[in-house]
Amino acid sequence: MSRIRVEGLSRRFGQVVAVDDVWLDVADGEFLVLLGPSGCGKSTLLRMIAGLLPPSEGRVLLGEADITHTPPQRRDLAMVFQSYALYPHLTVARNIAFPLRARGLSKEAMREKVNAVAKTLDLGGLLERRPKELSGGQRQRVALGRALVRDPGAFLMDEPLSNLDAKLRSSTRAEITALHRDLGATVLYVTHDQVEAMTMATRIALLNEGRVEQVGTPSEVYDEPASVFVARFLGSPSMNVIEATVQTAPDNGGGLSVRAGGVDVPLDVAAEVRPGQEVLLGIRPEHLTVTTPETAALRGTVTAVENLGGEEIAHCQAGENRFCVRGPRPLGLAAGQDAHLAVRTERLHLFDPADGRRLAWRPASVTV
Questions:
Q1: Which terminal residue of the chain, N or C, has fewer Cβ atoms less than 10 Å from its own Cβ?
Q2: Statement to judge: residues 79 and 213 lie in one domain
Q3: Based on the domain organization, do 216 and 68 belong to the same domain?
Q4: Are residues 40 and 101 in the same domain?
Q5: Confidence band (pLDDT; 50, 70, 90) for 327?
Q6: Is there a single domain that holds both residue 221 and residue 256?
């Protein structure tokens, strides 16, 4: 397998900048997910790497080879499309074998390769069927088989699960993850689904308006979001983000607290903030817990409670601020009640309201 490097890649369509100066390094054997909302440029970026779209600037390297201007068919890359792109008149076996025909392999050699891939993907009993006789999950496995049989340097996958129902998406996610683990393959995978990204990726590159907001492991981008955009994009419900002010807190030993309507959260140490500074306070719903009025850091009124089976989500209002709390069912909150909530202060996030970037700070209990 091979390392993929993207250096300063950009793509413009007239006055519209779809991809803006993207730098990425996908290590050999890594499963990197390009994540972001529709229209953020992730599919455009993948198509430039595949050679299906020429870049306006920048270059693409596979291993040590510059493939920026190499035709798609000569790049050692296999593409798996959202639409499967199977040939309806060919059997499963012939669909899988199609990339091998141009290599001039003997029928016996092609048959061996097809059978080996079919065994890996549990397609052995389907080789004589045609695509219209297969389920959506089976068709996606055939598309994966056609990519696998090439034994490419890397796999490029463009939202391959988006046409499947929820149950099939879950099972196919597990199959692709296991396949990556068994093969040690280099995978660059595009999706707008944060569940796919969090469960499948070794690293996530989160894109916003054609630019990379943050690259990191699933835990890093979730626990330490680099911007408000990342914080709000990941999580269900998304992170609570509240406009607030840093103030001196006499009841916190002269330390600092972050305050807004219904909000008074102590800060142990704040390296980049000062009294009077406006900030955006970020708190994930699962880091709030119901407490007594005397110890509450957030106070508001419950507007609705959602029952998720094992969990509940309570929606609260405090003046103009809205926030959610998520926890095991029952939370002990009901619509119309007052909510008194404690905060896990070591899990707080502070952002600059001017540019939305993360402000560095750490609790006093953390030593450097």
A1: C
A2: yes
A3: yes
A4: yes
A5: very high
A6: no
What is the model's pLDDT at position 270?
52
Residues 186 and 263 in one domain: no
Give yes or no: residues 136 and 221 share one domain: yes
Quick check: is 362 in a domain?
no
Q: Give the domain extent around 256.
A: 240-351
Q: Strand 187-191 vs strand 31-35: parallel, antiparallel, or unpaired?
A: parallel
Contacts of 113 (CB under 8 A, 6+ apart): 97, 100, 105, 149
Task: Give me the amino acid identity at 368.
Answer: V
Mean pLDDT estimate for the chain: 89
Q: Please give the pLDDT value at position 21.
A: 96
* Same domain, residue pair 48 and 182: yes
What three-state secondary structure class fits 144? helix
CB 292 within 8 A of CB 340: yes
Report strand pairing: 187-191 vs 240-249: unpaired
Contact between residue 189 and residue 32 where contact means Cβ atoms under 8 Å apart: yes
Q: Is residue 199 part of a domain?
A: yes
For residues 120 and 144, the answer to whether their CB atoms sit within 8 Å is no
Phi-psi region of 356 (alpha: psi -120 to 50; beta: other; left: phi over 0): left
Q: What is the C-alpha to C-alpha distance for residues 124 and 321, in angstroms, rounded to an integer?
A: 57
Is residue 203 included in any domain, yes or no? Answer: yes
Residue 363 domain-assigned (yes or no):
no
DSSP per residue, 294-358: GG-SEEEEEEEEEE-SSEEEEEEEETTEEEEEEEESP-S--TTSEEEEEE-GGG-EEE-TTT-BB
Tokens of 226: 């680099």
Confidence of residue 253 (pLDDT cuts 50, 70, 90): low
Is residue 35 within a helix (H) or strand (E), and if so which, with residue range?
strand 31-35
Calpha distance 200→58 (Å, rounded): 28
